[in-house]
């Protein structure tokens, strides 16, 4: 059995929704199973208030971004996700592959995700994630808002862990070869939420997210069968080679 962990953070639900499409793609691979796990919200109440940005709702851009409704959406999404288990370091250790999902914040990953990855920093030296396939999916308010930049900048820590990065090739994902506003790119899956967050993941975006899940599951399975995951340190001579 090949186990893929989908580890995600979602404030307004787009990433939570796209994680279901990723899960479907993993589930389509024989012998592959998935777990959906969440990166928790910051617990400091001062940060909570800042996140909900109550003081900005009446500004011009606050209206454009639909901030009044967002506060309500945020509360509901957090409640809905309460039953999703919080990801632990053991979940990362035990998975044969890990797919990370998070919204694009300022063209990169949210602080919540960076904080979680920092806590996992030990894996750089223990090598426990080395050789495992990994991939990313994100959401962004605008097609010009940096969803591709978020994926490109966020793959850096995964390479520090020694993971094998999996993207979305052109030939399988012709949906992103378009001049229409649709997520997805060679760097990973994505969805465009709209400036006010009112768009939900469309069929094309879900298809590409599903294929990403399938691709990681097949690669993890192949690596496992090739004994790369269990033997990689000996093969690469980084452990036990004297
Ligand atoms: C702090 C913050 C920063 C954001 N930065 C960007 C950004 O750089 N580019 C962009 O297109 N959208 C940005 N957004 C919009 C989010 O990407 C969008 O709300 C998100 O994709 C929704 O995902 P979720 O519903 O899973 O939380 C930002 C939102 C927040 C709250």
Automatic annotation (TrEMBL):
Superkingdom, taxonomy of origin: Bacteria
Secretion signal span: none
Family: Belongs to the WrbA family.
Molecular function via GO: FMN binding; NAD(P)H dehydrogenase (quinone) activity
Protein name: NAD(P)H dehydrogenase (Quinone)
GO cellular component: membrane
Pfam families: FMN_red
Annotated ranges, domain Flavodoxin-like: 4-217
Species for this entry: Domibacillus enclensis
């Amino acid at each position: 059995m090949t186990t893929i962990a989908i580890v995600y953070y979602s404030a307004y639900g787009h990433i939570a929704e796209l994680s279901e499409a990723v899960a479907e793609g993993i589930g389509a691979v024989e012998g592959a199973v998935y777990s959906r796990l969440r990166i928790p919200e910051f617990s400091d109440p001062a940060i909570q208030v800042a996140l909900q940005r109550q003081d900005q709702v009446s500004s011009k851009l606050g209206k454009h971004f639909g901030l009044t409704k967002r506060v309500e959406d945020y509360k509901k999404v957090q409640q809905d996700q309460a039953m999703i288990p919080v990801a632990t370091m053991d979940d990362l250790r035990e998975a044969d592959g890990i797919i990370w999902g998070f919204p694009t914040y300022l063209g990169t990953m949210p602080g919540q995700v960076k904080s979680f990855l920092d806590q996992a920093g030990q894996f750089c030296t223990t090598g426990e994630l080395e050789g495992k396939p990994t991939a990313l999916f994100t959401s962004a308010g605008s097609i010009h808002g940096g969803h591709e930049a978020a994926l490109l900048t966020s793959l850096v820590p995964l390479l520090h862990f020694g993971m094998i990065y999996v993207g979305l090739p052109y030939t399988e994902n012709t949906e992103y070869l378009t001049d229409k506003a649709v997520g997805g790119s060679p760097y990973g899956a994505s969805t465009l939420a709209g400036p006010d967050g009112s768009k939900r993941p469309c069929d094309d975006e879900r298809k590409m997210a599903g294929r990403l899940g399938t691709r990681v599951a097949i690669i993890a399975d192949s690596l496992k069968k090739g004994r790369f995951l269990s033997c990689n340190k000996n093969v690469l001579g980084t452990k036990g080679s004297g």
